[in-house]
Amino acid sequence: MSRELYDCTAAELATRPVEHLEHDTPPSEAANWLDENGYDAAPVYAGGDPVGFVHEDDISPDTDGDTLDTHVTPLTIDYMMSGDTSLPDVISALVANPVYFLGGHSNVTGVLTRADLNTAPARIYLFDRITYLEEQLRELVLDEAPNWKQTPVTVGELDDIESRYADAQAANVALDEIHYAQFSTLETIVTSVEDCWQACGFSTRGAANSALHEITELRNDVAHANLLVENTETNAFLSDGRTTENLSDTLETIEGVLGELSGATAEPDTSPDVSS
Fold first, then answer.
1. Rounded to whole angstroms, how far apart are CA atoms 214 and 250?
2. Is pLDDT above 60 for 101?
3. Which has the closest alpha carbon to 125: 89, 101, 155?
4. Helix, strand or coil for residue 23?
5. How far from the centroid of its chain's Cα atoms is residue 270's Cα?
6. pLDDT tens-digit profile of 258-271?
7. How far, in Å, are 86, 134, 162, 182 from residue 219 at the CA level?
8. How confident is the model at residue 235 (pLDDT cuts 50, 70, 90)?
9. Which of 184, 262, 261 is nearest to 218 (CA)?
10. Counting beta carbons within 10 angstroms of the beta carbon of residue 92, is it exposed (0 to 12), middle (13 to 18) or buried (19 or more)?
11. pTM of the entire predicted model
């Protein structure tokens, strides 16, 4: 990367402070407590030490019993995460499991769920990368598509660009006109010019169109403070709303295209293949 980008870790995303349930809490009471507090899961303690966790799917207000012991999932390494885990790795992990715990000094110090991907640190991280991608796409268009006004850009988009360009000229701060194009317009230009979408690492126009459209949709949600993960319940194909898996795939595409355009990937060990 030619400039430093914002980093986000599991520790910044995790919910704190951590409230816990005692193992001898009746399951029905615990289920109501989770619902009232809006928690997906909570650690369970016995004798002052964490022994596991209970998820909202494990119990309900109708669950019988005097303790949580038979409903607790052991707090093994599979459900633990280091606080310095990067956001791409956090998202990837949350595709597999809906909850993770951060620990220290024999205590749970943070709870991380898919809902935490809708918080400010994740939004800032994505905004920074998408903004950088936008900058790179503008430079790509200048290099590979100087006649970009002849692509399928609409009259309304051109009018909007020219209006903002005129305002910048009047203020004596004008850049090239392409700098006043919105991301969706850049998507149109890049996907219509073979040299552009190939430079982004795509093998077909269709692949470029699909992937860049997903980035445009994510960019709009980031910019307008909409939910980034709309469906935390399932990663099933054709599920309603953006899932954790969808977000993971889109972020991989962003990192991959940035790598193609800058000559070095933002995450060198996990660079995705964006050609399919």
1. 7
2. yes
3. 89
4. coil
5. 15
6. 999 987 434 433 34
7. 20, 10, 23, 11
8. low
9. 184
10. middle
11. 0.87
Specify the domain boundaries for CATH 3.10.580.10 within the chain.
10-113
How many helices, marked H, and strands, marked E, lie in the chain?
Answer: 9, 6
pLDDT confidence of residue 269: 39
Rounded to 5 degrees, φ, ψ at 13 are -85, -30
Do the beta carbons of residue 272 and residue 255 sit within 8 Å? Answer: yes
Span between the terminal Cα atoms of the chain, in Å: 24
Alpha carbons 247 and 194: distance in angstroms, whole number? 26
Tracing tokens 């399919």 back to the chain, one arrives at 276
Across the beta sheet with 73-74, what order do the strands follow?
Answer: 21-22, 41-46, 49-55, 73-74
| CATH number of the 10-113 domain | 3.10.580.10
